[in-house]
């Protein structure tokens, strides 16, 4: 093991609002990289003034360059393959604008970056590469006793694929574990006990590293299997159901009823972030304002009452995906260009039979009106809509959970979330995986 350190930016200095308050934190790392690494954790809003942060570390102060490096890192392929290179799919996400597109999904995040300067540390205005990037999204949820807890939801964990002499230098030298150790330490700084995140299920090496690093410092670690179901809208969609849809995005009374339906289903889910209508409304407001085509739809019954409802997020308004070396069925999808835009349907409410008609109608509507040809539906054991969401095209994921302390609270929440068959129902209805 070796000692590295990172800087946590807490905010501005009270005595001098023009200066940032930096907290230097040491972390134990087992990477084998010999070069200099500058690791910084900061609130995402700090990106507006990133030049002053870069200047502090004698780095090139150009904010456009920094943002372009971040955008490039976020676009690193996400591989759903095992350590032998076998698996179903790898893809790249290209956000249209950065960081605005991402802020629409989560408005309160800590960003962690690892920067690799290209010249010695006694120089100024040094060029650098961003070789590691992750969003630590701050969440809140309630335990069964009504207490509100702070939590983290990780997403977009990326590491550079840069190769030297054919070797992925940063991956092979275990930089990933160093980034993960910073993540664990930031939870200590912000006194966060509960963390979870999604990742591809195939790569056993990464899962083993996460488990080992967590348990090495006394963290509890477990995983739950999740399935990402992919539907082709041309096949899956229903014109009849599409014509019955009612857009309730601006109907306050209908949205209130929709929220109550959501609470009936997910009120006992583990890490449910929508424990208040205010939080639900805030999330909807961000998405609907930033995406001109994302909407809330309901399927009415014969009397016009809500039979089923969902949130349909058009990821195509934020990003497009490119498959990397697709095989089998995904090669056909890529060849006809229908993977560029994706519809993500979440927060289903209503009877399963009605919910299926709703989703089929939404799939049809987005294909016809917005050229969106693929719909994603996320499911896991205990999901009342598991049969509604099933597809012959599916991708195995896991949600990992890391607990720093307060195991009694976690065990109470875990037990409270179980269905009649003992399945732990995990809140996976986040606007972005």
Give a brief description:
By secondary structure, the chain is an alpha+beta fold.
Walk me through what this model shows:
With 433 residues, the protein is an alpha+beta fold. Helix 5 (175-189) crosses helix 6. Helix content is 31%, strand content 35%. Helix 12 (352-370) links the parallel strand 17 and strand 18. It contains 14 helices and 19 strands. It has a 14-stranded mixed beta sheet with strand order 2-1-3-6-7-8-11-19-12-18-17-15-14-13, sandwiched between helices. The chain has a 3-stranded antiparallel beta sheet with strand order 4-5-16. Strands 9-10 form a two-stranded antiparallel ribbon. The two termini are 32 Å apart. The chain is globular, with a radius of gyration of 22 Å.
Give the topology.
Layout lengths: L1 E12 L2 E14 L8 E6 L6 H7 L6 H12 L3 E4 L5 E9 L4 H4 L5 E9 L10 E15 L5 E12 L3 E2 L2 E2 H4 L2 H15 L4 E7 L3 H13 L3 E13 H4 L2 H6 L1 E2 L4 H15 L10 H14 L4 E6 L5 E9 L4 E5 L5 H7 L6 E9 L1 H19 L3 E6 L6 H4 L3 E11 L3 H10 L17
The overall pLDDT, averaged over residues, is 87
Give the strand content: 35-45%
Distance between the termini: 32 Å
**How many strands in all?**
19
| Approximate helicity band | 25-40%
Shape: globular
Using the CA coordinates, give the radius of gyration: 22 Å
Low-confidence stretches: 81-87
Described by strand count, sense and barrel closure, the largest sheet is: 14 strands, mixed
Strand order of the largest sheet: 2-1-3-6-7-8-11-19-12-18-17-15-14-13
What is the overall number of helices?
A: 14
Structural class: alpha+beta
